[in-house]
TrEMBL record:
Residues annotated as transmembrane: 33-52, 58-84, 104-127, 133-153, 160-177, 210-228, 235-260, 289-309, 321-346, 377-400
Protein name (database record): Manganese transporter
InterPro entries registered for this protein in UniProt: ArsP_2
Pfam families, per database record: ArsP_2
Keyword annotations from UniProtKB, A to Z: Membrane, Transmembrane, Transmembrane helix
Length: 401
């Protein structure tokens, strides 16, 4: 009896220790996720569980639109760019060293590329002390970050216009800054800076990536057909009554949302790191963009639903303030707020003047390494990038509204 009691006590103690260990592991995991990801997870879960059927319908429609109208095209664009980048193996540092007199336009050209990779690489060279302050301003003014993929997918013509405009504005601004202050103004001196500044650890293997890739194929096909105004549900025959297109869209959106928010290693846009290969970078960066596209779509759709206010009409009423507000949002580091702004433009709530002002003022993820190593230069460069952003934003407002 005593032996059995002792064995039972040991089992209970073992189970208690195991439960305590699991609990502590769970707490540690939640801490690793960070407050922002936890807030996103709680917010979306609460919306899906605690709202009315009508509101859930709006949420599901927004999730499907985010995936089929944006994410699938972002994935296709990212995949092509990352594959070519991998094959060409562009050496940014070598280009900047070789073409010293062309540092500003080369920096602007790399910044104008979709995503944050080129801009982060240029910023890394600045914090090493290899390029001028004007080149830093040029790349920050030229880059639109990951919001560029969203704009390119939804409005290719406007996207190309922004890329060209970013290059021109960035080049002019960079040359003016170097002319005013000289090429040694606020020059950083960090020759020992390791390569990891612009890179992040390789995310651990995610077993859902093959599922993500399989779902992308029908998602991309449905997205293309939807652009052609084809009734995609009718293609499923008897299953059309169940709304298969929306089901695929919602599934893809939730999968992307879960893969990014539940991975504690993916802090910011993983696409800026060249580690992991083109496929891994495409998956992780697309998921990052998808999360913030979902946020943007829900902010707009639920804002209109609950308030009854037409945001597009509201922005028209206060149109003179839009470029200024867009520039101020652009000062925020990271791509999330900028993707929200671009989502508002795509849905018709934000005028072109606000989109262009934000595109020039925002620095995407490129600002993070600069803030970490040379905060004064990063702050000054960001403020300088706001000047051409205001000029372009209000110039567009005066001519096109």
């Amino acid at each position: 009896m005593s032996a059995a009691y002792s064995k039972g006590a040991r089992d209970v103690t073992t189970l208690a220790a195991s439960a305590k260990g699991s609990f502590l592991d769970g707490v540690s995991y939640l801490r690793q996720l960070g407050a922002a990801k936890l807030l996103l997870l709680i917010a979306l879960t609460g919306l899906l569980i605690g709202t009315s059927p009508e509101t859930r319908g709006i949420i599901f429609a927004s999730l499907a639109d985010a995936y089929l109208a944006v994410s699938v095209f972002v994935a296709a664009t990212l995949g092509a760019i990352y594959y070519l980048e991998h094959k060409l193996d562009v050496d940014v540092a070598g280009l900047l060293r070789k073409y010293h007199r062309w540092q500003v336009p080369v920096a602007a050209a790399l910044g104008a590329l979709p995503g944050c990779g080129g801009a982060v690489a240029v910023v890394t060279q600045y914090v090493r002390g290899s390029i001028s302050f004007g080149s830093l301003v040029a790349v920050l003014a030229a880059t639109m970050g990951d919001a560029a993929f969203l704009l390119l997918a939804a409005e290719p013509t406007t996207g190309l216009l922004v890329f060209v405009l970013g290059f021109v504005v960035g080049s002019i601004t960079g040359h003016v800054i170097d002319w005013i202050h000289g090429v040694d103004f606020l020059r950083a001196d960090h020759p020992e800076l390791p390569d990891q500044v612009a890179r992040k650890p390789l995310p651990r293997l995610n077993k859902l990536r093959p599922v993500w890739a399989i779902l992308l194929v029908p998602g991309l096909l449905l997205g293309i057909l939807d652009l052609l105004q084809v009734d995609t549900d009718a293609l499923f025959g008897p299953l059309a009554a169940f709304g298969p297109t929306e089901i695929i869209g919602v599934t893809g959106a939730l999968l992307a949302f879960a893969m990014w928010t539940l991975d504690p290693e993916l802090r910011f846009d993983p696409g800026v790191s060249r580690a992991g290969g083109a496929f891994t970078r495409t998956v992780d960066a697309t998921n990052f963009v998808t999360v913030w596209v979902i946020v943007g779509f829900l902010v707009y759709e639920l804002g209109v639903h609950f308030s009854g206010i037409d945001l597009a009409q509201l922005f028209d009423t206060y149109a003179p303030l839009i470029p200024l507000l867009a520039v101020l949002v652009g000062f925020l580091p990271g791509c999330g707020p900028q993707i929200v702004v671009t989502s508002l433009y795509i849905t018709g709530a934000m005028p072109l003047s606000g989109q262009l002002a934000n595109a020039i003022s925002n620095d995407g993820d490129a600002l993070f390494p600069a803030l970490a190593i040379a905060p004064k230069a990063a702050a000054v460069a960001t403020i300088y990038s706001g000047i051409p952003a205001l000029i372009v934003g209000y110039g567009t407002y005066l001519f096109w509204g």
